[in-house]
Specification:
The protein is of the alpha/beta class. It is built from 16 helices and 29 strands.
Length: about 575
């Protein structure tokens, strides 16, 4: 079979030195039309060197493509969605599911993967390492044997000062008016109405009359007696008490400050991290990050590994140092449950939108988490307010939405996932019609000349793709940088990211609108990469004559070490 390029725009920047350039793409001819594409202003520097930008229109010209040795690395869910809905109908918001006792069997994991789960989250607060190892093994088997592409994330427990446990393997219902003992003493088994704190000084500074809040409001208690370090409390708001629950104290409507010198990363956290690395997890989410230091510490530890580090924003301190935390991390999780304990409820919507905006400006993926469909922990249908909350997160262009207890312990996890999928797809369509992505203030990220050029090319490529109405964007990338920059601009068409690095593929699984594919790529023959991948997709019946794709690349030829190859092409399949 052959692939023809009917109409093609080619803009290549050949960087032959680091001297100053004037870089801009002017009006280019495409399919008989003149299309404006602005690539930014001048690039300042020393000397009079410049980047050579060439534009050419190629019409016709059949290229024979060799038969691929291996099948294209497109996961089965994306392939089925593309067949059913077409390019522009593909969901772009990624979905994260917390795995727990309600969904840890091979059958349940497969159903979640078929339902659109992009990332499986394992909360290290719960279950044993053997249990987590078994779940990771099952997910890897699904990926390898059944063609899924599900990444794995572990979530560290964080400082022990925040954790309580009732000793039972599942949740316990706390009824209003019941009296409970909170103690740091080591307990045998799970005595009724008794809760063990994991930190001996958990009650320091706490007074009779203070309020104890479980998991951001799942249940509430009032301190009625203090005996040594133990607290006797009466339940004032009934609710579910999960194993390894987090808690906080309030006094007169204000959070009680906790004086603790415990590090963000405990000994248990480091042991869990070593476990995750040995099991090849793709993401590690750090709990209770108050500044950028623990993020940098972990990233230094993971140097030369493909595991990405996410920081959970769940405290007032993390909000005060938000930009430095975002800059240091590979992504952010907005843990609204714990965050809602530390700031007034009415501030949560604006804080969520601000975190999402900052992450997008700084080109870091952001997950909106906690209580998205909380009622579905017990009931088969969500409230209309919960669906509106999900839709608002999608409208804000969050990269991903996350289920917690809904999937981990609830009996309706698969239905909750389908609701996320349907709500996000519908809101994406509405947002595209409203053309909202133009409101993003483009913050310049690149420092070096090649990085600045790559950033401008991606900004320009998305504008061209939207103006031309292309069906898809193909990006060929080694480390995922240009795929991420394209995603940052939230284009109308989906982004197919071809990479030969599996770590890059699994990391891109969290990026908005990116469908990552693992393929063998040539560093020296870009046209062969394009022709081969287009032919692979067309041979599966996913590309048809008349489809238009935009092609972007950041691959660097190995035989010319000082030259970066960056290009934009528009190709029509015939």
């Amino acid at each position: 079979m052959a692939v023809a390029t009917s109409d093609s725009i080619l803009a290549r920047s050949l960087i032959t030195d680091r001297r100053s350039t004037n870089f801009g793409l002017k009006n280019e001819v495409c399919r008989g039309k003149v299309v404006p594409c602005r690539a930014g202003g001048k690039v300042k520097g020393k000397g009079k060197g410049r980047v050579e930008v060439k534009a050419a229109v190629q019409i016709g010209g059949l290229e024979e493509v060799k038969k691929a040795k291996e099948e294209m690395g497109l996961d089965v869910v994306s392939e089925e969605e593309l067949r059913e809905k077409g390019f522009l109908g593909m969901r772009k918001t990624k979905l994260v599911c917390t795995i727990g006792p309600a969904c840890c069997s091979p059958q349940d994991l497969e159903k979640l993967a078929l339902g659109g789960m992009n990332v499986a989250r394992l909360n290290m607060c719960h279950n044993t390492r053997d249990w987590h190892r078994d779940v990771i093994k099952k997910i890897n088997q699904l990926n390898e044997e059944k063609g899924f592409c599900v990444s794995v994330m572990i979530d560290t427990e964080g400082s022990q000062i925040h954790v309580l446990d009732h000793g039972a393997p599942s949740s316990v219902k706390a009824e209003e008016g019941s009296t409970w003992l909170f103690t740091a003493q080591k307990l045998e088994g799970s005595p009724p109405f008794t809760i063990q704190a994991n930190y001996e000084g958990f009650s320091e500074g706490i007074e009779v009359g203070d309020e104890l809040v479980i998991d951001g409001g799942m249940a509430s208690f009032q301190v009625i007696e203090k005996v040594g370090n133990d607290l006797r409390c009466k339940c004032t708001d009934s609710g579910l008490f999960l194993p390894r629950a987090k808690f906080s104290f309030w006094r007169n409507g204000k959070l009680v400050a906790r004086n603790s010198e415990l590090p963000t990363l405990s000994k248990k956290d480091w042991a869990d991290i070593e476990f995750g690395v040995s099991e090849g997890v793709d993401f590690i989410a750090l709990s209770f990050v108050n500044d950028a230091d623990p993020v940098r510490q972990l990233k230094n530890y993971l140097y030369m590994r493909s595991t990405r580090v996410l920081a959970k924003v769940e405290s007032l301190e993390s909000l005060q140092k938000l930009k430095e935390i975002v800059e240091a991390s590979d992504g952010i999780m907005v843990a609204r449950g714990d965050l809602g304990v530390e700031i007034p409820y009415e501030q949560i919507p604006t804080v969520q939108e601000e975190i999402t905006r900052v992450c997008r400006e700084m080109n870091k993926p952001v997950i909106v988490a906690s209580q998205l469909l909380e009622s579905m922990v017990e009931y088969p249908t969500p409230t209309r307010a919960e669906v509106a909350d999900v839709s608002e997160a999608v409208r804000q262009y969050a990269d991903a939405l996350m289920l917690s207890g809904e999937s981990a312990i609830g009996p309706y996890g698969q239905k909750a996932l389908s609701i996320l999928q349907m709500a996000s797809s519908r809101m994406e369509l509405w947002s595209r019609e409203e053309n909202r992505q133009s409101i993003l203030h483009q913050r310049r990220l690149g420092v070096s000349l090649p990085d600045r050029i790559a950033e401008q090319i991606c900004n320009c490529a998305v504008e061209m793709a939207n103006n031309l109405g292309v069906d898809a964007i193909f990006v060929y990338t080694k480390h995922g940088q240009m795929a991420s920059l394209l995603s940052r601009n939230r284009p109308y068409p989906p982004i197919f990211a071809f990479t030969s690095d599996n770590g890059t593929r699994m990391a891109l699984n969290l990026q908005w609108g990116v469908i990552p594919l693992l393929v063998e790529l040539s560093d020296d023959d870009m046209e062969a990469n394009i022709s081969t991948t287009i032919e692979l997709i067309r041979r599966k019946g996913l590309l048809k004559p008349g489809d238009v794709v935009m092609v972007v690349s950041d691959l660097t030829p190995t035989h010319i070490n000082s030259t970066a190859f960056q290009s934009i092409q528009v190709k029509t399949v015939v």
